[in-house]
Amino acid sequence: MAAASLLALLDDIASVLDDVALLTRMASQKTAGVLGDDLALNAQQVAGVRADRELPVVWAVARGSALNKAILVPTALAISAFAPWAITPLLMVGGAYLCFEGFEKLAHRYLHSHEELEADHTKLVQAVADPVVDLVAFEKTKIRGAIRTDFILSAEIIAITLGTVAAASLGTQLLVLSAVAAIMTAGVYGLVAGIVKIDDVGLHLSRLPGDGWSSAARRGLGRGLLRAAPWLMKGLSIAGTAAMFLVGGGILTHGLPWLHHAIESLTTTVGTVLGASGTLLASLLADGLTGLLAGGLVLAAVNATRGLIRKVRGPQAPEGSH
């Protein structure tokens, strides 16, 4: 009797684990697009950091990402159980923030004077060149920004996963959400760490000794990696900014039914003419343009609010004055 009960228990556990594995795979497939955006955005955050500080910055952001997911998983389960209506509005707030951050990056050079930009650049160059400067403190702003962006993308990953496992039991939901969160964090930041060290790998290969063809081939590969690394980081920076508009705009369009249906109708029409690739391109353009417009509106509102606050406070006394 005890043996039969034990076998039944093991069978139940195996069945649950099978369900968890299947649902985890389904959720991972659905969140693959967000994973690509997350990768581009986080690799972008390390651009401009001194070589010996790249991995510490990646590790700091990875720890922040793990904490984000440790907060998001139980929060998502609680919201799903007690206030499912709040998921979409919260995601839309996050989407609007991503659009705002992307538009601010584009508009940065136009919102600040040439003198301010030159002063920021000089400060960065001096900090990177001066080994006495506490770069950990200097990088805190960059790390905080990366963690904030990761929070929005992680929230979307968790929300998509929650939608995939909505019909499952609470225990299965918890296991699948935890598994996806762990896989995504390890995958994104493992790849980011590899990307930012490509130039170091290239430098190592380019200096290998030896006269044979294999040594020459490795040195050639190293020189190729060194030439490609700056272009890769530049490309990831552009892709990261574009991802903010695509992900943020996609969240907003899906959260507004009338807009979603209008875009769906448009993309279907385009698809009848250009096929599946045309449908995908039209959908991406619609999400990107929505994100761009939303980012501009939010940035205008934020700047207007800041201006109003400064006007109400009046001129500030210089530091150190009495």
Fold and architecture overview:
This protein has one domain. Helices cover 86% and strands 0% of the residues. It is built from twelve helices and no strands. The N and C termini lie far apart (85 Å). Residues 6-17 and 27-33 have low confidence and may be disordered.
How would you briefly describe this protein structure?
It contains 12 helices and no strands.
Describe the protein's topology.
Elements: H1 2-30, H2 32-45, H3 54-82, H4 87-111, H5 114-129, H6 135-138, H7 140-164, H8 170-196, H9 198-206, H10 213-255, H11 257-274, H12 276-313
Helix pairs in contact: 1-7, 1-8, 2-7, 2-8, 2-10, 3-7, 3-8, 4-7, 4-10, 4-12, 7-8, 9-10, 10-12, 11-12
